[in-house]
Structures are given as structure tokens and as C-alpha cells.
């Protein structure tokens, strides 16, 4: 059944693809180099389809929710909601760290290019550390802006800049200096776990899937639209990663003249005065400058909404959004979904849509001096410290991505799936014992997924499958400490 005024499928597909893809696209050639020309694309496809599967679990089990963390709370307990909220903050923070490093490197190269165009030499004091401090000075006032309407409109065109960078990288990859050579190509590397860590964050969008598809015009197509969005990004990752690695698996560093392997920022392979690289850096710099305030606002909101009581945040005039009182959030026993006979859908008892709609529509209002300014200083200091003293994007992304991916892509969705399936299985047998009515039996069969005699085997298989995926996600995170990036 379609909703009037909801988001059409084409908008959802491209919104998903545009939100998921970002500055990490320029690290994909490095990802392929860590695993090999054949094994690398296989891992991209594997991680993509595993992310699609767990994304489908989130959409299926989050019907009626704007936030998967709320579903986790109602199914697993309050600890899971805090964990989900913390991971959302951590993945956004790691993205800001990578943005700061990329911006510093791009600004350094762009200034070098302008100086070279004037036939002068760059001063010795002009380093990436200076450019990192300049980025801080530019971005800090932007993250303090309370109304991001204008920036949001500008950032909506950011996908054009990212696509332009992808086209330039692919073009440069297939036309490198001296042509493509297959010498010293690695086809499969035992260092492949490093790639899995970065790929986990490259496909990470699971924390906003319920809110993104909540107002879909055709809810029945949500799974299909989500899958198409993931596949679109998967194709871009493969194109950029393979061509970038083929063209620059070994390249002559334009700054030092030494032969090096592909870095975690493919743009560093190109000379500052290279016109196409110059255009790519400008496009990516502008896109990241307007993306950062939006991402920062999401980080701040997620932090305060997830870890502080609403009553503690309501200060000053205009803070009219209702608190997360017991009547709305409820406890695990109060807000647990009740299974009814409405085609296997979940309904809720004692919580009207009116309260949830009121909570959703009124934005969080924070006091500037108490909340916005102090949090901005703290959250801006962290990326700046990394950009100054540890500008290794690849290592940052692989550790943060593997941990966040383990929790939000593998652990929580599969735990919720296990609990929901077991609850449905038990509810089915209880209902069958209470009433022998044939229509009720059919309804409960649809919930358990099969006839009662076979339902137990099906639930056992779900538990086994989910456990394997959880162990896989955990192993990816653990292996980051065993293997070192080349």
C-alpha cells in the first residue's frame, strides 16, 4: 500500500547512495592494495551483500520505529540502546576525523598548486599541520551555526562533487603515466583483514535506515530500494578501487621522486599542478566543507539525545520538545511489541502515535553556552588532534570501521532477529494451545515462518546463521590488531 506524500523510490535509492558514499571513496584503491586485485573486489562484494542482509533485518524489525536503537531497547534492554547510540556517535566522529585529514591534505596540495602556478617555491613552514589548523579555523564557526538550512541545501549537491572525483580517479587510473603495467601486481594478499575494516565503515549506514525509509511512499519496496542503493555504491567502490590500484599500485611520488605503493588517499599520487587532480581536490574540498557541519550537528544531537535525560537538556525558552518520559520510552516490559492477528504485523499497547509524532516533529533545542559551545570545542578538538599528530586515515578507518561494523552491522541486528524469532515461535505455540481455530493457526504459521513442527528447526537455523555472522564481525575487529597495513 502506497502513502500519499511519501518519498518516491528513486529519491530513496539515490539518497541512500549519496549518504553512504563520501570522502572514503578515495581510500578504495588502498583497500584493494591491501587484499589484492582479485581478492579485494571479492571482499567489496562480500561486505556489500552482508551489509545488505543486515540492513534488511533492521528494516524488517524496525517497523513503526524511527530509530533502531529504540527497537533494540524494547527487545534486548536499555544497554543495547546506549550501545547503538554510542556507536552512532563514534562512527560520525571517525568520519569527521577522516574529513579533517583529507581536508588538510587537499588544502596543502591546492596551496602548493597556486604557488607553483606563480612560478615560486612553497615555503618550508607550509605543512599539513598548518593546513589542519586553518581547516579548524574555517570549520569551527560553521559548526556553531544553529540553522543549517542553507548548508543542507548546498550539501545536497555534494554527490555531484563526489561523482566528479570518482570519474577523475577512474580516468587517471586507466591513463597513468607510462600506461598500466601488470608488473608487481598482487592478486591475493594475506593482509586482507585490513581491507575488511575499512569496508565496514564504507558500507555503514545502518543507524539511519529506519528514519530514512519511515516515510517511504511504497513501504513494500523498502527492501528493494535499499538493496539498489547499496549496489549502486558497490559498483562505484569497485570502479574507483580497481582502476586506482591498477594505475598507481606503484607510482613515483611527485614530491620526493621515490617509488611508493598506493597511499590511503589516492589524490596524493597526483602532482599538485596536475589539472585533473586540481579539479578533483577542489570538488572534494568544497563537498567536505559543507558536509562537516551537517555531520557535526548529527553527532551532537545523537550524543545529547542518547546519553542525557531530556529534562536536563530543556533549558531556556523554546525548549518545547516533550521529554523522554516513561510514557513514551517505556520500560522493556511496557513497550514490548505485542503480536496480534494483523497479518503478522507488530502493534503496540498503551502508546499512541500522537505522542510519538509530537516527539518526532519537534527538533531538539540546546542552549548555546551550556551545550553547543562546550560540545563543539570537545568534538572539534578530537579530529584536529588526529590531523596534527596521527594523519593515518587508513588505520583510523579500519579500527573504527571494524568495531562500529561489528556492533551495528553484525551484533545488534542479529541479536534482535534471534529474540524476535524466538518470541514469535513461542507466541505461536502458546496461541495454538489456547485456540484450535484454523485461521489463527494460519496467522501464527506466518509469524513463525513455517508449520509448527518445522518452526523449531527454522528458529534453530536462524540462531546458527546469526551467530556465525556475529562471530564473523568480531573476527574482523580482532584481526585489525593482528595484521598491519602495508
TrEMBL record:
Pfam short name (any one): Aa_trans
Family note: Belongs to the amino acid/polyamine transporter 2 family. SLC38A9 subfamily.
Biased composition range(s): Basic and acidic residues: 331-344
Start and end residues of each Amino acid transporter transmembrane domain: 13-421
Lineage: Eukaryota, Metamonada, Preaxostyla, Oxymonadida, Blattamonas
Keyword set, alphabetical order: Amino-acid transport, Disulfide bond, Endosome, Glycoprotein, Lysosome, Membrane, Metal-binding, Sodium, Transmembrane, Transmembrane helix, Transport
PANTHER family: AMINO ACID TRANSPORTER (PTHR22950), NEUTRAL AMINO ACID TRANSPORTER 9 (PTHR22950:SF244)
The protein's name in its UniProt record: Transmembrane amino acid transporter
TM stretches of this protein: 12-32, 38-59, 79-103, 123-145, 157-174, 194-214, 226-248, 368-390, 396-416, 459-483
Segments of this protein annotated with the region Disordered: 324-356
Topology of this chain in the membrane: Multi-pass membrane protein
Compartments where located: Late endosome membrane; Lysosome membrane
Amino acid at each position: 500500500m502506497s502513502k500519499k506524500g511519501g518519498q518516491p523510490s528513486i529519491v530513496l535509492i539515490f539518497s541512500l547512495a549519496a549518504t553512504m558514499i563520501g570522502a572514503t571513496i578515495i581510500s578504495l584503491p588502498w583497500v584493494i592494495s591491501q587484499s589484492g586485485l582479485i581478492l579485494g573486489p571479492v571482499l567489496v562484494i562480500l561486505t556489500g551483500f552482508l551489509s545488505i542482509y543486515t540492513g534488511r533485518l533492521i528494516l524488517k524489525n524496525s517497523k513503526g520505529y524511527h530509530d533502531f536503537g529504540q527497537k533494540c531497547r524494547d527487545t534486548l534492554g536499555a544497554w543495547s540502546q546506549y550501545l547503538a547510540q554510542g556507536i552512532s556517535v563514534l562512527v560520525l566522529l571517525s568520519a569527521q576525523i577522516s574529513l579533517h585529514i583529507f581536508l588538510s591534505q587537499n588544502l596543502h596540495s591546492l596551496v602548493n598548486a597556486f604557488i607553483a602556478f606563480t612560478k615560486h617555491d612553497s615555503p618550508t613552514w607550509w605543512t599539513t599541520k598548518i593546513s589542519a589548523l586553518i581547516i579548524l579555523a574555517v570549520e569551527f564557526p560553521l559548526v556553531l551555526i544553529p540553522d543549517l538550512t542553507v548548508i543542507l541545501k548546498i550539501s545536497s549537491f555534494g554527490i555531484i562533487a563526489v561523482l566528479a572525483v570518482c570519474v577523475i580517479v577512474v580516468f587517471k587510473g586507466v591513463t597513468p603515466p607510462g600506461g598500466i603495467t601488470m608488473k608487481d601486481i598482487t592478486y591475493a594478499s594475506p593482509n586482507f583483514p585490513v581491507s575488511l575494516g575499512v569496508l565496514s565503515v564504507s558500507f555503514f549506514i545502518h543507524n539511519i535506515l529506519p528514519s530514512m525509509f519511515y516515510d517511504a511512499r511504497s513501504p513494500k519496496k523498502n527492501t528493494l530500494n535499499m538493496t539498489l542503493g547499496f549496489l549502486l555504491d558497490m559498483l562505484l567502490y569497485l570502479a574507483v578501487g580497481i582502476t586506482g590500484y591498477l594505475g598507481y599500485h606503484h607510482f613515483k611520488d611527485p614530491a620526493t621522486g621515490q617509488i611508493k605503493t598506493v597511499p590511503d588517499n589516492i589524490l596524493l599520487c597526483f602532482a599538485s599542478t596536475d589539472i585533473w587532480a586540481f579539479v578533483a581536490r577542489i570538488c572534494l574540498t568544497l563537498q567536505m566543507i559543507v558536509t562537516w557541519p551537517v555531520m557535526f550537528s548529527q553527532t551532537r544531537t545523537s550524543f545529547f539525545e542518547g546519553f542525557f535525560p531530556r529534562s536536563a537538556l530543556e533549558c531556556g525558552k523554546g525548549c518545547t520538545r516533550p521529554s523522554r518520559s516513561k510514557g513514551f520510552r517505556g520500560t522493556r516490559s511496557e513497550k514490548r511489541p505485542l503480536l496480534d492477528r494483523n497479518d503478522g504485523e507488530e502493534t503496540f499497547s498503551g502508546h499512541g502515535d500522537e505522542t510519538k509524532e509530537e516527539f518526532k516533529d519537534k527538533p531538539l533545542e540546546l542552549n548555546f553556552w551550556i551545550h553547543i559551545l562546550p560540545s563543539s570545542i570537545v568534538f572539534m578538538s578530537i579530529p584536529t588532534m588526529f590531523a596534527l599528530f596521527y594523519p593515518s586515515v587508513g588505520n583510523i578507518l579500519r579500527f573504527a570501521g571494524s568495531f562500529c561494523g561489528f556492533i551495528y552491522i553484525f551484533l545488534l541486528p542479529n541479536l534482535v532477529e534471534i529474540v524476535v524469532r524466538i518470541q514469535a515461535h513461542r507466541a505461536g505455540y502458546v496461541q495454538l494451545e489456547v485456540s484450535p481455530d484454523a485461521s489463527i493457526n494460519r496467522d501464527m504459521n506466518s509469524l513463525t515462518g513455517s508449520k509448527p513442527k518445522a518452526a523449531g528447526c527454522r528458529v534453530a537455523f536462524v540462531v546458527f546463521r546469526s551467530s556465525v555472522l556475529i562471530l564473523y564481525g568480531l573476527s574482523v575487529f580482532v584481526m585489525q590488531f593482528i595484521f598491519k597495513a602495508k
